[in-house]
Amino acid sequence: MRIARAVLVRRAIRLEFLTIVWMLVEAGVSLWGGTQANSVSLRAFGIDSLIEIISAGVLIWRLGAELRNGQVFGEWTERVASRISGVLLFGLAAYVVITATSKLVAHTGEEFSQIGLSITLLAMPTMYFLARRKVAIAEALGSRAMRADAMESVTCGYLSLVVVVGLIMQALTDAWWIDAVASLGVVGFLVKEGREAWTGSCHC
Fold first, then answer.
1. What DSSP string runs through 55-71?
2. What is the Cα Rg of the chain in Å?
3. Cβ-contact 13, 60 below 8 angstroms
4. Would the pTM count as exceeding 0.85?
5. CA 26, CA 183: separation in Å to the nearest integer?
6. Per-residue confidence band for 78, with pLDDT thresholds at 50, 70 and 90
């Protein structure tokens, strides 16, 4: 293994640990805020953060395997890592569809969440920074799993934007259906990201 590649792998591992630290904060705040406000979009945002924690952990395993056993073994773990991420994202998409549909049928809405608005506003620049760094390292390593992880950060940024818009509209109009509709708006992102992670065909 060339020294330059080993340095890149270690940088990628540090970046994934940074991702885990932020996602622990993001998941905790979002899930608590989503529970308090009965918000599907906030809970989905929190669950997506948990998925990113799992994805980061799997990617650390994949990168560590390369450092210990060489690039060939790393490529095998990469395929496993990508497919695990894909399954988790499909599961989140199913959760959002089922929960949002049940809320629309029952005509139940959410309460405005100030803490939810705050964490999602903070998430946008944070995800932008993480995604850019991950894409750069993924290209240098030629890693599909790293690119898939970068796209999860991109999707998290889009999710945060959707949640922010939904929360602001909820505060302005008090319409009961906004949260469910906003949460359904992220399903396309989740399915696309899950399919690309499963097939290893992510495009950054």
1. HHHHHHHHHHHHHHH-H
2. 17
3. yes
4. no
5. 17
6. low
Question: In one letter, which amino acid is 114?
Answer: Q
Tell me the pLDDT tens digit for each residue of 108-145.
Answer: 666 778 898 999 999 999 999 998 999 889 888 887 77
Q: Which two tokens stand for residue 114?
A: 């100030």
Domains within the chain, CATH numbers bracketed: 3-199 (1.20.1510.10)
Residues 31-69 pLDDT 10s:
998 888 888 778 888 988 888 888 888 888 878 877 777
Tokens 């999710």 correspond to: 159
CA max distance for the chain: 59
Are 1 and 70 spatial neighbours (Cβ–Cβ below 8 Å)? yes
Phi/psi region, residue 174 (left: phi>0; alpha: psi -120 to 50; beta: rest), is left
Residue type, 25: V
